[in-house]
What does this fold into?
Amino acid sequence: MKNELKISLLLLAGATVISGCQLTRGGATDEPAVAAPAAQKAVIATVAPDYSSGAHAVVSTTEPFTAMTQLAPTVSDITVACNGKYFYRIQRYSGENVSRFDIAQPDTQLYQYSTRDSSGVEAANSNPHGLVFISDTKAYLLRYGSPKLWIVNPSASTEAEFKIGEIDLSAYSVDGSPNMDNGVVVDGKAYITLQRLDMSFAPQDAYVAVIDTETDEEIDTDPATDGLKGILLPVKNPGDIEYSSDDGLIYVQGTGRYGSSRSNPPRDPEYTGGIVSIDPRNGYATKLVLDDGDATSHPFGLITGMEITSATKGYIIGYKGFTDNALYSFNPATGKVDVDADGKPKVVAGISGKGIGGLGADRSGQLWVSIADSNDPGIKLVKAEDGSVIKERISTLLNPTTIAFCDAE
It folds into this structure.
């Protein structure tokens, strides 16, 4: 596992598509017509409460939110990613492979390719954590346990054609690996989060490596300064990374360090996380948008997840314990968290005291929240605009974690 928390976040969001055509109403005035968002389906990684097994679920994004669950049962250590009508289920530490599925036949595996190095040079587990898609035939495979990022062809018809190159990120390695975890592509550049944990899971200075997706060369984001080429973050243990087309900024969520009652002596959480913005148009300038606090004051607990839904609306997962999470909203433009009448962070849609495994926003402006619950696991659906409840529960049978969105068939 990448750290002591077994629930992984790998969040992907869609964007609303607006048509530029005109619609004439009543024969008098031309008004701009807004096209309905292209149809999507949600693909959700699901995990047994005891981590003995896993599967994926596929859910329609419109009423009645029809769900297919328990698809292609497998191990529990999985995540999912989407590209067009295809989705990819990644078995991480316990499997080291990538499987491809068509959304039209979500229970039929099209291929399964290994992410292990076949040369025998790498001794560590590759522990793949995600795919960052450049095109239908090119993606970056993030191998958490290795210093080598793979360039792959997700449409490859044979395993021999799957790996087409690699990028060496060993300059960032801590105890053998830089722990590449998540990524996003903006204007021909891939931004890859590097957690950089040591063998005791203590997070070191975190970076975002920036790669030119045409040349596959790393970009020096501060050529006037010696040292690593990437963007040094003001938070540690980065997880989610998202691009907001509304304001042109990239947002990164940092967790800090989880506490542990099993360490000797027990270890308190380290509040070195928060939400950071990166301005790709202004020398990759960073800004701490939202701080998680310190040992004395940490109103949300650790911040373990994020979803940016507009320039002025975002959501975070506050983590106070393994099954004691809450959902809060904030304004990315100001860093202000929405508060209640007492000035305390306001819980969104009553989501508190539960395990929250992931967040995702679809093209229709719906926020999907993965709720781990031994009695009623599933997705709670709320309006991204204001956090009001759309659907109290869409059952997934097993506890949902990562949520991704594919084009519907």
